[in-house]
Design brief:
3-stranded mixed sheet, Helicase, Ruva Protein, domain 3, GMP Synthetase, Chain A, domain 3, Rossmann fold, alpha/beta
Amino acid sequence: MSVSSAGQGANSASKKVKAVKVTTEEEREAVNLAADWADISQGLRKDLGHQAHSQWIKPIQPGTYCKETGTLDLYLPTEFSANWVNDRFADRLSLAWKIARPDVRHVRILVQPGRRQLPELRLGSGGRPSRAPANDSANGSSDSLSAALSGEAFTALGQGPAGIDASQTFSSFVTGESNVLACNAAQRMAATEKPQFSPLYLKGSTGQGKTHLLHAIGHAYLTNHPHARIFYCSAERFMVEFVQALRQNQMIEFKARLRGFDLLLVDDIQFIIGKASAQEELLYTIDALLQEGKRLVFAADRAPQALDGVEPRLLSRLSMGLVADIQPADIELRRAILENRLQRFASIDVPADVIEFLARTINRNVRELVGGLNKLIAYAQLTGQPVSLQLAEEQLTDILSANRRRITIDEIQRTVCQFYRIDRTEMSSKRRARAVVRPRQVAMYLAKVLTPRSYPEIGRKFGGRDHSTVIHAVRLIEELRTRDADMDGDVRSLLRQLES
């Protein structure tokens, strides 16, 4: 081999080695950017609140960074969201990045390269939108796109057609006494046959499953009606789109797009309070869709009658269908939710006492309950420690302290006496009549379950009784619950009252 060819071979090998180094450096830089962004995003979440962060900041993806110019590109999925973030959060993002990485001098907010843009809906005769399926892509491929109010696509990571989260389905929704009505009504709304009621109004406090049911309705409806046009949004998103159309003199197009959907899903409707023009437009949209037999689902943290500042006509439309209440999950449902969630972590052993502890302690909402379990399992996996009661108490301090409501034995006695309609003095009396003894035993059982008091301490609160009397009462009620449906029902009802 000639010297020339040998030199060329060495040069080629050198280029390959250099290319490998460049790739490694690029990967390292991407990892560093992602880590910095995780910290920045968490800080912005605290500053802006969950709603604004989830809608505008969370979808941002760190892009390329040029060291020579100090320019960092941040990507968003759509032109609308990029413009919105650029107008309102550009300075805050730039400052946050400069604090995290002093070498960053410029931050650009751009549309993610290669994202497909959905063309504006074409208005046909009579000013109505064309009936092309919103969940069908232009070339018929599987990456379906959906028409949003702005004519852009919801194609964020983890979301399917029309912004529907494919993981939040009816099969993954755990039902109990507190939410079975809402779940059944939601399934009826998504069925092939026309529902007997519309709109459906889901009412429940934060973290009880309203949003899950909205996504489940959209997912099931698309399964049953593959060519249907659906739109899912929050009331805040509706307001943004409405104001945008108003400013750009595109109200005709806005109305035409909105009224062309077969299923309209609006979350957090309480945030439309006080917006007179938006309320009026929503009112006309509801009327138009109902006249054509379309389906509408709304969700809020309060009943329609409790929405202050809502126009009476809109209030009557929201409550004219079915209002399905989602009550806080009781202890049985919380256990079932945890057991269901554990199926995703087949390799992790979570003892029964940990499940019971989490179900009893984290009782404010389901979202915190699932989040607590996820955090505990993630910590155990990352550190190699086994999941235990001690580990749960150590690592979930914030969640547990926020959920703990100190229930006293006096409160338990008062509640039990009201339930069984006996005098409060019977908790400490020496009477042995069955009508008095059984409620007293139930109160002792609840005192052991719901308070950290020892058997002797509980005995002293019940007229100075011996600890063996309390142990007997606890074991007896536990046994009766397994074979006496009435007793089990009484205890469940008392637990709900005391834990609510």
